[in-house]
Structure formats: C-alpha cells, structure tokens
Amino acid sequence: MAAIYTYLAQDLRTGVILNELPLHGVNFDRQLNKAGNMQGSSSLDNQRLDNDDLLEATTPGKTALYIYREDKIVWGGIIWSRWYQSQGKALQFSAQTWESYAYKRIFRGDTKTKVTLNEAQCRIIQDLWTDLQWSDPRGNINVYGATSFPANDVVRTYVFDPYSFATYGSTIDDICDNYDDSCEFFIDTYEDGFGNPVKQLVFGYPRLGNIVDFTDLVLDYPGNILNYYYTENVSDAANRAFATGDADGTITIQPVPGPTDTGDSTAVIWGVAEDTTSTDAGYPLLDSVTSHSGVIVQTTIDSNARSDLASKPVPTITHTFEIDPVADPVFGTYGLGDDARIQIQDPRFPEGIEQVVRVVGWNVQPGESDATEAVSLVLQEDDTAGMQNG
C-alpha cells in the first residue's frame, strides 16, 4: 500500500502549530551540508481548510512546514515563496530546509571589533547558529545545538570583520566545502517524546552516516532499484587543481621593466594538487583554478587545493537511483551520509558490478490518489567506506 503523507504548518518564531495543510503536487529533497528544497500546491475554496486559515498557515517567511511519511518527519523547513493564480484558485509554495535561514542573516559580532573563533570546525558552526539565533531574539527559529561532537575534529581559525557583512551561511559553506578534511552537518527534524517537532544540528567528522557494515543497505538492479542513471562527465573535471588565496605580504614578484612599471607587486599565496592516477590511465592534463579569498597560510591553501581536486574527479560519476520506497530497505529507515552496497548487472555492466556508495541526497514525490510514490536517491562513490561516523 502507498505511504500516507501529511503536511503540518507551524509558526516559525513561536512554534505554535497552525494547521494540517491540504497539499498536492509535492516534491521535496534533502542533501548534506546544504539546504534542501520543496514545492507544493493547494487551492482556495477547498473542502478541507478555510481560506483564511490556509493563507495564514502558508505565509512566506513566517511559516515552518513539516512533512510526515506515516508517523515520521522526513522533511522540515521554511516557506519562502507563495504564488496565487486566480482562474484556478491555485496556491503554489516554495520552501527550503532550516539550513537556508543562515543565508538570510549577516554576522556582525558586536558591530565594532573583529571576532576570532579558534576551535574545532563543528563547534564553530554551532557557535554561528547560536549567535544568529541569540544575538537578537527576533532571529531565534529554535534550532537546537548538537548533543555531541566528533572526536579529533580539525581546529580552524576564523576572523570575522564586522564590516565584511558576510552571511552566516557563506562561512558555514567555507568550512564544509573548502578543505580536504572538512566536517559534515545537517539539521535533523524529528518528534520528541511528547509529539512535538524538534530541529537539531547534527555533525560528523570525517563524515556523517554509518558505514555499510552497519547499514545493511543493499540496492539491486534488477530488484529494489526500479531504474537508474549512471552519468560520466569530464567537462568540469580536473586532475590538477590550483588554489589561490590572498597576498601574504612576504612574497614579491619583479615586474618586467617598462613604461608602465610601478615597482614590486605582491603575489598571492597558492597551492596545487594533482591526480596522477588519471593521467597514468591515459587522460590528458586537465587544470582548474579556484580563488579562496582571505587565505594567507600555505598549509590552508594546500588543503583547499586538495579539496578542489577531490570535488572534480576524472571522470566525475553521478548515480541517481529510482527505488521502490516500500521494498526493503524502506524509505526513511536510512539517513543522509549512510553507505549502501549497489549490485548491478545489465547491458551497461554485463559482467556485473558491486561497490559501496553513500546516500548524499534524495528527492521524493509522495503518491497521490492512484499515483505511485517516487523516491530517487543521489549516490556518491565512497572512498571513506571504512571510516566510522563521527
């Protein structure tokens, strides 16, 4: 039987439950370290909810939305946009998970002096979320801090200039995306023991999720995989990655003498990382360069270069699997970052393949009336399969 989905609206700041929403045409996704998206529709003059109540419970920027699959919350976030079409009396909504709120806020410290955070990277992210919610009580959306932190997390130093007007979200992106030893996080949503929705930070280092020996998550084609897409792309890949930072004040380059010579100029700090495995396999040299503003430490820019290289493997392989959501493993019994073992045998892989991948995202279309629930998993080839979760 098809799973039952329900949609619950809540006042974002007060936490007061507003109404259950009569939604259809819903599509939602989740991903590690980033905000997930949701789209859905309703209509005025429906038989389930008064027009005024429906409009109040879907006010953009003021309303939180929880999506339940059976009795489990599988998505939570903020309604940011709403569109009304008069002829069909139709309302459409766009929402994003809680992580999106960090991009709506500017870090100002005390607005006068620089603020330095020098601690484990997961704790820096938690400090930022604490500050954006408690530096001004109007910014509190009730995201709770993590109950535990990974051991042996990497210490970072971040200096916040109150006149840079950077968002909290951009700093969190830098921590999670720009180092070869970055941490991972997402904001989990679940019910407490009294049936109240809770949102809470969850961290992992060097990774989130459980390794395949613990998940027992096996995906077969043919089998519980209904269809899959295996994409190989080298258009944006690189096997040599240059990373540039800012001038460190010590390295100079001598300009070529000439009529426009203005003297010595300061060089930016830079690092490089290479993947010789792909060139040894016959691929030509493929270069990329990425700027990392504010970096003036050589070991940091070297880590940035390794991270940039890891994000552009040759070739870049993307797996998207459409799975049977009610066959084992049932959707909702595994989490973001968990490992899965895939087993495929078909004309693309006539000899068959078996490998470990990670669940790094998913997209869901709840079933409606005679429509079938559709779940697509975004999978990433896992080179950390032997690592425990943090």
Would you identify the CATH architecture of the largest domain? 3-Layer(bab) Sandwich
The percent range for helix content is 10-25%
The helix/strand class is: mainly beta
Please count the beta strands (DSSP E, at least 2 residues each).
Answer: 21
Instruction: List segments where confidence is low: pLDDT < 50 over at least 5 consecutive residues.
Output: 249-265, 385-390
General description of the model:
This protein has 390 residues and is mainly beta. It has 4 domains: 5-98, Baseplate protein-like domain - beta roll fold (Phage tail proteins - horseshoe like beta roll fold), CATH 2.30.300; 105-204, 3-Layer(bab) Sandwich (Phage tail protein beta-alpha-beta fold); 212-234 and 315-381, Baseplate protein-like domain - beta roll fold (Phage tail proteins - horseshoe like beta roll fold); 240-310, no CATH class. Helix content is 13%, strand content 43%. It is built from 6 helices and 21 strands. Strands 1, 2, 3, 4, 5, 6, 7, 13, 14, 18, 19, 20 and 21 form a 13-stranded mixed sheet that branches. A 3-stranded mixed sheet has the order 9-12-11. A hairpin with a 5-residue loop joins strand 3 and strand 4 (37-43). Helix 2 (121-134) runs antiparallel to helix 3 (168-177). It is globular.
